[in-house]
Amino acid sequence: MGKRVIESPVPFVLRKVFIEKVTGELAIRGENFEKSLYFSQGNLCFARTNVLHERLGEVLFKIGKIDKTQFWDIHKLISGQKEKVGRVLVQNNFISQKDLFFGLIHQVRVIALSTFALTSGEWEFLPTLPELSEDSRFQIELPGIFAEGVARFKSLPLFRNSFAQRTLQVRPLSDELGSFLKEDDVRLYRELGASSGAPAGRLARELGLTDEAFWQKLALFFLMNIVEFAAAPAADQPSSQEHEALLALYESMKARDMGYYEIFNLKSGATFNEIKDMYYQFAKKFHPDRLGESSNPELREKANFVFARINKAFEVLSNEDKRREYDMKGYKEIQKAEKSSENLVEKANLYYRKAKTLYSQQRYRETASLMEESVRNDPNKASYYLLLGLAQSNIPNLRRVAEKSFQRVIELEPWNPEPFAALGLLFQSEKMEKRAENFFRKALSIDPEHELSKKKLAEMLGTDKKKSGFSIFQKKK
Question: What's the pTM?
């Protein structure tokens, strides 16, 4: 299971990637989106998304590289072909190769910056980097992303409440990092240096900044690793009365399903500012970090439970659409729907894991049966449709259905070469050589190093007689 964005925001992950110079893939998934960020030694090198306004065509139009007529012509040109948009644009002289390179970098930045605004979904970091073509490998420095993205940071209240009671410690600022900061930022950083060791939450007023502006700048410095926070002083640790209040709230939450307004002691007509103020008070009062490092593990577990419920309540009530749905359906119906959805997703994943084992044993009908259940329970996961299609393509009377499964993968992940290669194999088995060749070529247009497609295309063209044990369902090394 991945980590929840509401509890561990994506920018915090980016900070770790930056500090530790990590290589790998950050996969982020929510109710209506999937994004992947790829890193090489701490630099952002590529990104993918299924969000429409973050696609390459939309990005190029927004930055003025193509006009409105060209934008609509893209859809006509790629309709039914599933070619890479960039390749289509260059081949049809809409843009130059240089403009395409610029547009791709801008798109990667747009996708990365969008993660600062996320307040829901889950993320998972995979320590392996998939093969990327040379023209899709960039070296975008994360401090530049931090400097631009922090203004969109929707989890600022969580950041504030996590560190307000801790003492601020200033770290050295290198010339390289300083180049990403504005003059005002550098000035503030130096002023913070003079206050190093003071509780962070008390400094905004002393420095003449609004609370929001102060914490936004502090978040930037934290992400760039030029400030850090030490444990809260003993005087700021919660009293025994606050411990009792925490335990009482925990017992109330466990004893009955407390509604989100009830958690904050508010009525349903409360304004956003009232909700935000109460959230700040509750999050500050019941944050697990206030318990100190040596706290009772059982007490900390209860504090984590309470804090998660407080965050969930704020996530819903601070979002206009979610709050409207909550007001219409009520807490119990929303909880029932969420639990039902979570159970279906978990069930789909369980079927998928079992089906992978069956597929490796060549038990294709059983695999297909399980995967039909998976896509019914979780209909927006491309990997499920891919395995379903692979199983169906090995069952003679289901091969036509397999084509539809692979097309669904392409709809969900048009950048993925695997469904194109799978369609190539499918049509090759049906003796439709020309269609098979076209799909292998499409797979290679996405990933020029795709081993299976290169091998099959070479065999069809009579240029390679070597055999390979590569399987389309096998992960690349």
Answer: 0.54
